[in-house]
């Protein structure tokens, strides 16, 4: 008799455990289904296309940001062409206002804002007594003016100084500003034109031998563009404008433009 009663109690306990497990599973599923869509979407990775000169800052920002971010770094003109061709991109940070403006003309931008300012410099391993000394040196690298903003600024500045046409036999063109920097670091060229922030990153390998004065070229403005209405895209776009990110940019030598909405 005792044995039968024990078996009944044991069966009852097992049935109760099954019922409780089923209830917990249902509750967990309901919680998942009822979770705010914004939270679920915020965990989806976004793609940020950014100018090559922003490599170090984007790496740090990506580590600080709370959700997955994939960065596509390159020349601003090349990135714009990729976006126009349908390549996946949620946010675009260009080293030139021109490329964001062209996307806006095609209706590919939801909103944009001027984000950063930079300076243009010549880097090398040997000092220049004057800017005219570049005419007596070896190879001189700039970015491809048609697709690399730093190259376009360089051509403009050198032209205004009366040097560009005299340097045609020396000039070699890089695919982006970091390509130019690497050529100078490796000694493949004597000098190159890069952003001041690039020179500061490579200060152990190259030095700034000349800084172009304001007025020799257009102001170097980095605009940021939001490319779609996805909540996670907007979230990152707003995050970039915050104080935490501002400190990162300033640490690397950029001037942050506060509230310069277009």
From TrEMBL:
Gene3D superfamilies in the cross-refs: Periplasmic binding protein-like II
GO molecular function, one term: molybdate ion binding
Keyword vocabulary terms for this entry: Metal-binding, Molybdenum, Signal
Residues at which molybdate binds: 53, 76, 150, 177, 195
Keyword tRNA processing attributed: no
Transmembrane segments: none
Source organism superkingdom: Bacteria
Pfam families in the record: SBP_bac_11
Signal peptide: 1-28
GO biological process: molybdate ion transport
Entry similarity comment: Belongs to the bacterial solute-binding protein ModA family.
PANTHER family: MOLYBDATE-BINDING PERIPLASMIC PROTEIN (PTHR30632), SULFATE-BINDING PROTEIN (PTHR30632:SF0)
The protein's name: Molybdate ABC superfamily ATP binding cassette transporter, binding protein
